[in-house]
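hey m, so remember when u said the tokens were messed up on ur end? i reran from scratch. heres the input so u can diff it against urs
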Amino acid sequence: MRELQSLINGIGLGALYALVGLAAAFVLRVTKIMNFAVGGIVVLAGLAAASFSGVPPVLRLVLLLVVGAPVGVIVHLVSTRWLAGRQSQSQEHDLGGVLVTVALATALQGLGYLLFGSDLRFAKPVVSAHTFSLGGGITITTGTLLLVGAVVLGGAASWLVLERSSLGRALRAVSDDAVTARLSGVRVSTMAFVAYALLGVLCFFVGDISAEVVGVTPDNVFHIIVGALFGLVIGGGDRIVGPIVGGLIIGIAEAVVNGRGGQFAATVVELGLVLVILLVAPRGLFPDRTSRVVG
């Protein structure tokens, strides 16, 4: 029973990793840069949500989503925009760009300490906290259900944008071949701004949900992004389902092993899972084997 309860708790943690992984995968597909600043944006959004104690939760969420878009654009301007064109065609990912985003994540963490301190903060929940009994001493909270619902909503929204819209076709074209996309009339630099604006909206959504359910503190920045990126490696970033399934696997593994052997053992297991996947499926469990057509 203890393992089953840990598994249920891990679903909530995995859902959080899945949401952050979705955001990271979104910009990775367009810019080819793994942006570690995602964790900092999520945490700052959560800290901001927790500070709006007198604002109704639904209105607070709307305000955060509106603010999220320009914040995402600002992150692009101060981190990856100046790296545009620096990558060679033979280089899929830019190490310099990654290091810049790590530095930005550290700066965002410091900003969180400066503005909000190090205390764990919670935002007023949209849905009142409640615990449901599943029998046999097993319970599930509204927080876990909210995180799972957020994954479904975030995954569906990402799928609609990327797979069922003209904007998504343009973003995929830039990801597959920026030169061909530019010759086809797609404004490559504009697509990067759009991708980061959408990233900001998604991160602020995740930050609000996280502040409601598990609470936020600047200490969470790298723990969240590492869990999300582990999930991204396991599931793969080519398809929407990749970071979702990968994040859930990491969250469940962390919760179950942590309940028995502690955090160190959980970290060892997570690293082991990542190494195994890198050996047998370097592109993750859900690689995109379909060819893209620009236009």
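this time it looks ok to me. Residues 87-92, 291-295 have pLDDT under 50 and may be disordered. if urs says something different then somethings off w ur setup not the seq
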